[in-house]
Amino acid sequence: MVELTIDGLKVEAAEGSMVIQAAHAAGLYIPHFCYHKKLSIAANCRMCLVEVEKAPKALPACATPVTNGMVVHTRSDKAVAAQRAVMEFLLINHPLDCPVCDQGGECQLQDLAMGYGESASRYKEPKRVVFHKPMGPLISAEQMQRCIHCTRCIRVGEEIGGIMEVGMLNRGEFSEITTFVGEAVESELSGNMIDVCPVGALLSKPFMMSARTWELARRRSVSPHDSVGANLVVQTKMDRVMRVVPFENEDVNECWISDRDRFAYCGLYTEDRLQHPMVKGCDGQWHEASWSDALQAVVDGINQVREESGPAQIGAIGTETATLEELALLARLTRALGSDNVDFRLRGDGAALDGALSGAPWLGLPIAGLNDLDRVLVVGSFLRKDHPLFAQRLRQAAKHGMQLSLIESVTTDPLVPVAARMTVAPSACANALAEVAVALAEQAGQAAPEAFAGVQPGESARAIAASLASGERVAVLLGNMAVASDQAALLAANAAALAQAAGGTFGFLTAGGNTVGGYLAGAVPSQGGLDAARMLAQPLKAYIVLHAEPRLDSDLGERAVRTLQGSALAVALTSYRSAAEDWADVMLPVAPFTETSGTFVNAEGRAQSFKGVAVPVGDTRPAWKVLRVLGNLFELQGFDDETSESVRDTVMVGGLEGRLSNAIRTAPGLHAPAQGLERIPEVPIYRSDALVRRSQPLQEHVASAPPRAAMNAATLQALGAQDGDALRISSAHGAIELPAALDPAVADGAVRIAGAFEQTAALGCGQGQITVERI
Amino acid sequence: MRGGRTLKAVIPGGSSAPVLPADIMMQTNMDYDSIAKAGSMLGSGAVIVMDDTRCMVKSLMRLSYFYFEESCGQCTPCREGTGWLYRMMHRVEHGRGTPEDIETLDSVAHNMMGRTICALADAAAMPVRSFIKHFRDEFVHHIEHKDCVVSKYL
């Protein structure tokens, strides 16, 4: 530690830290623009100039390392003169259009100009004109003359997003922040540029000109879209959500959120929102109904099924983005009705996975622990797209020597240096893990594990093994695609065996904001009930579907809809009409996460509760209340909860000790290679749940481009097709037509076809064999 | 001097060094200490000698244009200040100056000095301050008469 004096205050600071950090830690504010605690130091704005005794000139506090006995004055005449001079320079070419600027009221330049600026300008020359820049559907760069060239956006893109998509063009007074020629900013973390921009140069495009900052109420919430559970500040005006920004939580999302967390709110108030309970009449038409009539229709219908066909004909399906309370009450209701058919995982083979799990699968380590890992193997994941903020943490870890290895089906660029990788078809992932395990044993001079007898590791498997063996803090993490595959149990067993052999941690990245919570809430079959895949494959008599949109969320796609249509009663608890109107018999409008209280349990098992932040639209009610009332109407026991907190406390009683477990009960082994072509069922980042899919700006993003059948040159040649040719693709569930696309990144024998699109709904979203032919 | 003209000023150390008028320069030796005592520096060692046909306002405008062009734009004072200096000088030279401009020029140059990462801001500011210090009359004449004091020679 180093001791120095700042403004007469004795301050202790870590060696190598900067004066501004020491000052901020001591509660002394030093004005600054380009300095950001999470970014590298640029020292170009010069706003933080301070007087340091024995130094002839004022020094920038952000770039001056602390030394023992240093005496710093941040408010002396010399320091303030320097700061005022810099402020004058910053303002001469700034348009001073605060009254029409969206940043007005939350602008660092505006705030500091109040303290360090003059009331009138001495600058009489014409001001600089800077052309607007197209940056895509999320970021507005319409008023670039407001830019003060702090370069924070460049640094956040490069250091946090991992990709340089904006840069500085030209020199001197003509330097401009711009994207590369004509290209939009496409990073999944791009919205953070808006947050770090200290002026109104980079603004949120969807929020533009819709409210002033002082009109907004700020309410805390938690993002449901991925398993990070990013902490949010949801800003509302007249109780409607206007904007979402991060709430800083060093252990979870630090001060960042992904664009999915930030812009998904645009899907909240679409035309498609279900405003009132709806019941389908005998005429096949939808009719608005009162809550009591609609609930009575549900109770009567389900009671009839119970009496005529038995409770085992009732199935309940939730989603991985529903709250802990909703899933707990859904499970409680289903079981109280006498059925065990309850599941919240619409993708993958839930039953097989349940056979392998011995508790709620989780990350296996704290989220913040990702930064400290030194060897990581990620299996079956589109890491950057599925978990933007986990990828961000691994990016930081890579700066300290972390080596990332990947086993995947498409050679993706995680924007983290990749030490070694295997790109294999989905069905070959389990064997790829076996290869790495055998290589690891060989390198340690041990016999190969029995389960993997006869496996000959290839060169890339040896490289992954060598990387894993050379580290101390090792993790093997299973991604969303691996868990959603029909071989999830085998992949988990092999990955767990590998992690154990490497002396590391085995973990699941987990898909949704409440995947871990769904297991804790007991929303999975436990006494021989059906999982979601089986419920949706063969019609039951009655269904209760919570938040899910089976056509796009389920592996079975349109086949799931046909199954639901074949039931006697399908009840949809949904926020959106189009999610259910073609299969449901009763639609109950329930609140998205912004309009209900609840809890999400993220990948590390952190239960984060939140309150409703906006007024429910129309007759919308929180789903947990609807389920509780249904329990009362069925006259069942255990539905007396007055608050969502009491539901949560019932679930979380006894804490998480022993309930999170990545121990795999099934044996590792090998998988016979699949014949023919396989599908790589990608879920694009902005198609991951019902809310995201309805956010217009995210749908305009290039990541939501219409699906194509992407394959490598060899596969394309074998089909006799060329890039752009129309193809007919059929799976076990149905057939579709798509254009072919040449993508050298795709593994041999596999075709990358995005799911969760209307265009591919007939095919479903599952992994498995497909046939492809030219038409 | 060539053509029998009289010496007007010397910039003894490259364009960033403060200018010295003839009377000071002629009493000074060209060594580090003497030049420093006289208020300038040997700098790069490039010497610019100006006779009485040179307009100091136009000369300073040209120097300011050079630094305006050369600024990389990284630090605020230099990125904004070099352009400001050049534009003011351009105005004064072209007869659109105002009496306050002289003080503003001096003050802007002062505000730039010692506040940037590299020395280019200082280099841009030193000529401005020294030209105004030693040749203020020419600036005043330019502003008052919208004309050059030396134009009659040309």
In terms of structural class, how would the helical and strand content of chain B be classed?
Answer: mainly alpha
Bin the strand percentage of chain B.
5-15%
How would you classify the quaternary structure?
heterodimer
Tally of helical runs of chain B: 6
Largest interface: A-B, 31 and 27 residues
Number of H- or I-type helical stretches of chain A = 24
Strand/helix succession of chain B: EEHHEHHHH
C-alpha Rg of chain A (nearest Å): 28 Å
Mean pLDDT of chain A: 96
Describe, in plain words, how this protein is organized in 3D.
The complex is a heterodimer of chains A (775) and B (154). Chain A is an alpha/beta fold. Chain A has 24 helices and 32 strands. In chain A, strand 10 and strand 11 form a beta hairpin. In chain A, helix 9 (350-356) packs parallel to helix 15 (488-501) and helix 12 runs parallel beside helix 15. The longest helix of chain A has 19 residues, at 291-309. The model of chain A has no long low-confidence stretch (mean pLDDT 96). Chain B is mostly helical and 154 residues long. Chain B has helices at residues 22-25, 32-38, 56-70, 76-93, 100-112, 120-145; strands at residues 7-11, 20-21, 48-51. Chain B has a 3-stranded antiparallel sheet. In chain B, helix 5 runs antiparallel to helix 6. Chain B is globular and about 45 Å long. The model of chain B has no long low-confidence stretch (mean pLDDT 94). The interface between A and B is medium-sized, with 31 and 27 residues.
Question: Secondary-structure blueprint of this entry?
Answer:
The complex is a heterodimer of chains A (775) and B (154).
Chain A: E1 2-6, E2 9-13, H1 19-25, E3 49-52, E4 59-60, E5 71-73, H2 77-92, H3 108-116, E6 139-140, H4 152-160, E7 166-169, E8 176-179, H5 192-196, E9 203-204, E10 217-222, E11 231-237, E12 240-246, H6 259-263, E13 278-280, E14 286-288, H7 291-309, E15 314-317, H8 324-336, E16 342-343, H9 350-356, E17 375-379, H10 383-386, H11 388-399, E18 403-408, E19 418-423, H12 429-443, H13 459-469, E20 474-478, H14 480-483, H15 488-501, E21 505-508, H16 515-520, H17 532-537, E22 542-546, H18 550-553, H19 558-565, E23 569-574, E24 586-589, E25 598-601, E26 607-610, H20 623-633, H21 644-652, E27 677-682, H22 690-693, H23 696-700, E28 709-711, H24 713-718, E29 726-730, E30 735-742, E31 750-754, E32 768-774
Parallel strand pairs in A: 1-5, 15-16, 15-22, 17-18, 17-20, 18-19, 20-21, 22-23, 23-24, 27-31, 28-30
Antiparallel strand pairs in A: 1-2, 3-4, 3-5, 6-9, 7-8, 10-11, 11-12, 13-14, 13-24, 25-26, 27-32, 29-30, 29-32
Chain B: E1 7-11, E2 20-21, H1 22-25, H2 32-38, E3 48-51, H3 56-70, H4 76-93, H5 100-112, H6 120-145
Antiparallel strand pairs in B: 1-2, 1-3
